[in-house]
Amino acid sequence: MSLYAARKRSNRIAMGLCTVAAVFGIVWLVLILAVLVWEGVSGLSWRVFTEITPSMGSTTGGLLNAIVGSLMMVFFAVLIGTPLGLLAGTYMAEYGRYEKLTHVVRFINDILLSAPSIVIGLFIYEILVAPFGGFSGWAGSAALAVIVIPVVVRTTEDMLLLVPGQLREAAAALGLPRSVIIKQVAYKAALAGIVTGILLAVARISGETAPLLFTALSNNFFSTSMTQPIASLPVVIYNFTKTPDENMQQLAWTGALLITFAVLVMSIIARALSTRMKK
Amino acid sequence: MVDVAIKNAAHGRDEAENRLRVLERFRRGDKFFFHLTRSAAFLVLVLLFAIVASLTYGAWPALSHFGFDFLISQSWNANTEQFGALATIYGTLVTSLIAMLIAVPVGIGIAIFLTELCPAVLRRPIGIAVELLAGIPSIIYGIWGFFVFAPVLQQTLQPFLISLFAPVPVLNALFAGPPYGLGILTAGLILAIMVLPFIASVSRDVFETVPAVMKEAAYGLGCTTWEVVRNVVIPHTRAGLVGGVMLALGRALGETMAVTFVIGNARQISASILQPGTTISATIALEYAEASEGLYRSSLVALGLILFVISFIVLAVARLMLARLNKQEA
Fold first, then answer.
1. TM spans, by residue (chain A) (predicted)?
2. Model confidence pTM above 0.90
3. What is the pLDDT of residue A205?
4. Residue B123's CATH number
């Protein structure tokens, strides 16, 4: 009987600790989101979207140039990174499913997936910024594209592997060549999954700060030139947080709220799409 | 298909010739697409190689000038051009260690709660929330830590720790004041909060690979929930758990933005974890854009190379462990 009581007691203690852990963890995360919404919403107004970043001591200003810069760099990063990732994922799932190359690429890709993003910034600095004379939007986009590629490779491979082999066999029986089967049948069947991968990649790079610090740098003025330094939301948040200026700090919070909101919306859509795909 | 393509092809030639032409076109298209995708797959390898090569190239002046001393020297002086990585490596390892000490038990606790204890109604919403939180950009944690968390720590936890451990011999050095708010401990705590949803969601996924029959068999023998977790679930998923934790460690080691704001940026190794320190990533983020050409910049690249090598090893081990779990499952 005493053994039974002891077992019951240790069960209660362990399970109690797990519940406490869950409550503890969730409280912290809710707290962060609550503070973010609280601080961010109080600075939300039209000027955030219509005015450019202010200088020290000013009481006006917004984030227009940073928002535009972020959108442009993310757009070009996805434009460069997606086709490359898509093709590599296609090889791994369709042609080289049992090849050694695929295993090696998958292993390396998984490591690139979680490689420190600041190192990618250094890499782009070495190959694009230093030799071609200066910080630019293109360098920023290239750094983000390096982050996009592994995400897209991973999801494309996973999603193409989910496409049933019978679909391909049926298409082959009609006399379709393999490349056409992949493009017309496999891609179409995996479309929702591939879009999920792209959305996840966008969500991932929208908040990336470290690789932009010394590739795109930042810009206090409105600029849409990709050959010049260009502002981006994360870098502006980073710079404004470090200032003692209250107006700038407020804008940093608001910018943080905008990024978090965008990232959460994209992740939710991606999730919804991928559950549909897996059904 | 060939017949359809022939119909769409140019008229006026005889059928056999058309058929040949179409087949030839298919063959060329196939070959082209195969080589296109294969080169894209190679590109991933090239990417890794290029990162290592360019970092090594950039770091070479510093590495060849300082040699092995770079790893064990603490000095970091831009005026005398004396650079060493020890203080930043120390900061990187200690902040990640603190983060893991807190986030691993709590994260696994959350995963156990979600898989074994949570009411079925709440299971999905909490699981989804944890997954979404894992995707929040790290700069959010940084700005929160800087404006909200660090001042609170300075007022509450840090003075408490200092007074609590003051009479204890070894620990009083570890928690020596004054409370700055910013420092190694604060950075470690922020990292812990940041990797927590990640560890929780990976562990939950791993726990869910345990076949229900195995757990039911244990319950049938009269095991308590804790005994099932300890004797069935955890042994079955050990490789996956270690893999997930290593992945989180890889993230914590390379994290820049959550750390830069709250670490205090002092290039020193002090016994007390309440004192300011720095990490590899924070040093690069703060100094690289302004660093002068030559040894200074090269030393920062060398730091980046060290960080890449450390996280490469950690991530490679993580992936091997996770792959082992998958094989076990199959």
1. 12-38, 63-87, 107-129, 135-153, 185-205, 251-273
2. yes
3. 95
4. 1.10.3720.10
